[in-house]
Design goal:
The chain is mostly beta strands. It has two helices and 20 strands. Helix 1 packs across helix 2. The longest helix has 11 residues. Bound molecules: copper (II) ion (CU). Copper (II) ion binds next to loops.
Length: 316
């Protein structure tokens, strides 16, 4: 289990995600440097709309808004009953006011839907099917409580975006208290451990190691073009981060376990809930972790700061 499996963090959707918030694999670099710099230089001084949009896209975490960049997440139901296969449907409304029907494939799918109960006691990553009119349908396994849905997609000709929407599930429930940090996750006989510390404003290496019955798992299977998919959700606001390893199955360097490595950078010393999807022997499983980032909430290197956000002069 040498560290040759070091997969560099592949933060696709990340450039715009935590805006210096999460992630940034070596291969990717400070993607947000340029727009963020503009933002800092010009904040509040007649910045034109275009630059404002770019700056916002780079500095606001994903998944917090139901509408962004002209796209809206229209959920057909706001409240559902609990169940293991609850039908859910939605459309992504485009800038022209009509459902988007043309998407670029990202990680082998046109759209990824993440559902998480707000107290972090439930998590699913599914791939809805789209009808010709742009209506997406799927089923979710949901318990009573408040859920957050994230639609992660890239419309043709547009930047990738992740929109968030609320789904309430009927019934009495007992909200779970925040958990202490947890770096070991057991699922269906597999044990996954997370090594590495998240540090605010610094790139951190996270190594996730998969074992079963005490033995390293060295034949993980590709799932959506990678050996692991990591989603990080910030406690408090569920800001969304979708991270993928940089190495690809079959690239001659990336080994199929037991280690899957990510590089992540978070903006603030906050608690994050992380979910790793991995596939073995034909089944996709999810391991869950809680990690609190160390350090102070210093402005990101890009020059952005909390104070710079949100005063978009009318923010359209
Ligand atoms: Cu997906």
């Amino acid at each position: 289990m040498s560290v040759t499996t070091k997969l560099v963090g592949f933060l696709v959707a990340l450039a715009a995600v935590f805006g210096g918030a999460v992630g940034i694999g070596r291969a990717v670099g400070p993607i947000d440097a340029s727009p963020a710099a503009d933002h800092g230089d010009m904040s509040g001084h007649g910045m034109d709309d275009m630059k404002m949009d770019e700056a916002d896209a780079a500095s606001i975490p994903k998944g917090l808004m139901v509408s962004q960049n002209g796209y809206s997440f229209r959920l057909d139901q706001a409240i559902v009953s609990p169940g293991t296969a609850v039908p859910v449907s939605f459309t992504i409304e485009g800038p022209d006011g009509r459902p988007v029907t043309e998407y670029d494939v990202q990680h082998e799918k046109q759209l990824h839907l993440i559902a998480v109960r707000r107290d972090f006691t439930g998590f699913q990553h599914v791939h809805p099917v789209m009808a010709e009119d742009g209506t997406w349908t799927t089923t979710l396994d949901v318990t009573a409580g408040q859920w957050r849905l994230f639609a992660d997609f890239k419309a043709v000709g547009a930047d990738p975006v992740t929109l968030g929407n609320d789904l309430a599930v009927r019934g009495d429930y007992a909200p779970a208290a925040p958990t202490a940090d947890s770096r070991t996750s057991t699922v269906d006989g597999y044990t996954v451990t997370l090594d590495g510390d998240l540090a605010a404003g610094q790139e951190a290496k996270l190594t996730l190691t998969v074992t079963r019955d005490g033995e390293p798992v060295t034949d993980l299977q590709p799932y959506l073009g990678a050996y692991g998919h990591l989603v990080a959700l910030r406690a408090g606001d569920l800001a969304y981060l979708h991270v993928h390893p940089d190495g690809s199955p079959g690239d001659g360097e990336t080994e199929p376990g037991p280690d899957v490595v990510f590089f992540a950078e978070v903006p603030s010393p906050t608690r994050y809930n992380l979910y790793l999807d991995f596939k073995h022997e034909g089944v996709v499983r999810t391991a869950a972790f809680t990690v609190t980032a160390t350090g102070s909430a210093a402005p990101s290197p890009s020059g952005d700061s909390e104070a710079d956000n949100g005063h978009a002069d009318g923010a359209h």
